[in-house]
Amino acid sequence: MKICQKRVNKIAFLDEYINKKIRIAIPYSTELNEKLERIGFTPSFEMGESVLPKKIGPATKKNAEGYEIIHKDRPKEIKISTRLWTRQEWAGRDHTREVTDLVQIPYERYPRTSILPYGVELMITKDQNNQKMITTSEILCDECNLELIKNTINMYLEIFGECHILLPNMNIIQPSQFKKLNWEILPHGQYPWEVRREQVRKFIEKASKGNRATIDFRLETINSFHPDFTAMGLNGFNGYLIFGFTDKDIYILESTVINNATYILEKDWEELSKLTKREILSENLHKARIIHKLSWKNDITELLES
Description:
306 residues, alpha+beta, nine-stranded mixed sheet, six-stranded antiparallel sheet, 19 strands
C-alpha cells in the first residue's frame, strides 16, 4: 500500500494488516538525498546506516522526544524548579560579594503524564531487486502498536511526503551489521571544563537561555570526576549526554531537561549505543535516579567517590 498525503488521522486502513508484521518504507532515490541528510544520514547513504530521525515537525518530535498529557481537569499542583542563581550577598562594612548557588523556586502547573518517545529508527536496507530502501524494523500491527504505526506513517509523510506499507513476503534484505548514527564519542582524555565545554557547546545551547547556567553547572560537576569517555547524542538523541566511568561500571545520562533527574544506567557503553531511545529511557535500565534538587551535587559526589 502506498500513502501519499500530508498526514493520516484515521487508521481504519490498517485493519487489513492486523496481527501481521509490517514495515513502513520508501524506495531510495537521489531526489531524497537532501531530506535524508537533514534527518541524520551520512552523504554516502551506506547499507546498514540506522538513525533516530532529527526533529523537524510534530511526528518526528513525538518519535524522538515523546509527549506530555496535560490534565486540565485536575487541580494544579506545586512543582519545584531548581536553578543556579547569582546574587549579591552582604559581606559587611558596606561591601557585597557575588554568590552563585542552587535555589528552589516553587510554581504551579496542571498535573501531567509523560509518554516515552516511540524511538522508531530508520535504516538503509534493500529489496530482492537490489533496490535501496529506507525502512523501519518489522512492527507487529496489533492494538498495542496502532498509535506507534500511525505516528511512524506521519513521520514518513513529514520527511518524505509519501510511504509504503510492506509485508514480510516483500523480501527486505537487512545487512548483517547496522551502523548507528545516534552518538558522537568526544575526544578521549581528561579535559578541563573550559575545553570540554566548547566540545559540548551545541548541547548546552539546545536549552533555553535561562537554563544554560544550571546545565553547565551539572556537566562541569560530572566532568570534574574525569569520565573515561563522553558521548553526545546526535539527531533524535540531540540533547542527551552519556558520561562513562568504566572502572566503576557507572554510566550517567544527562539531558537539557531541567527539573528532571540524572539517570544512572546499568548497561555498558557497547550495549547502550545499540539501544533505541525508548529503551534507554525505560525505567528498567535505570540503576538509580538523582533528582535535580539542592542536594544534587552532594548526591553525585557520593556516587562517584564511593
